Amino acid sequence: MGLAATQRDLYALITGFGAGPLAAAAREVVGTRALPPRRRVLIYGDQYFWRMYEALTLDYPRLASQLDEQVLQSVVKRYARDCPSRHWDLGQFGAHFARWLKAARVPGARADFVDLARLEWARNEAFLAPDATPIDAAAMAAVPAAALPAA
């Protein structure tokens, strides 16, 4: 089996996505008596879920605080399945969450959840955005008063 096939199978096993049954773990993962292949894969699978959970709840803390814990875990699993992380920066995992949430049926979701998700993502983007170059008083004075609101 080639590297691409091995990576695809391991991704399916670890994330729980795709056709990779846990029985295939023995084909892809070396185990020991103390830690057989299936248990090794489950360790990585648990870690994967909790990393996604942490990333989403850190980016959307207010929204996450409004959901029952079991519902929240289900939401994270569904979102991770439907919108898997494709960026090297885990901080980008939640980039499509508001759009996904708009179409998802989430038990206990309030009508304003999509707006709240958009607000929380905008806050994250603003926090991580590069600093703007400050302008000095002379530059401000050069802007006509009528143009200030749009400046």
Task: Walk me through this protein's architecture.
The longest helix has 23 residues, at 37-59. Helices cover 58% and strands 0% of the residues. It is elongated. It has 151 residues and is mainly α. It is built from 8 helices and no strands. It has helices spanning 3-15, 25-28, 37-59, 61-65, 69-82, 97-103, 113-128, 137-141.
Secondary structure topology:
Layout (H helix, E strand, L loop, with lengths): L2 H13 L9 H4 L8 H23 L1 H5 L3 H14 L14 H7 L9 H16 L8 H5 L10
What are its keywords?
about 150 residues; about 60% helix; mainly alpha; 8 helices; single chain
How many β strands by DSSP? 0
Which oligomerization state do the chains in this entry correspond to? single chain
One letter per element, helices H and strands E, the order comes to HHHHHHHH
The Rg value, from CA coordinates, equals 22 Å
Structural class: mainly alpha
Largest sheet: none
Stretches where pLDDT falls below 50 for ≥5 residues? none
Q: Helical proportion?
A: 55-70%
Q: Would you tell me the overall average pLDDT? A: 88
* Global morphology: elongated
β-sheet strand percentage? under 5%
Instruction: State the end-to-end CA separation.
Output: 60 Å
Number of helical stretches of at least 4 residues: 8
Briefly characterize the structure.
The protein is 58% helix and 0% strand. The protein is mainly alpha-helical.
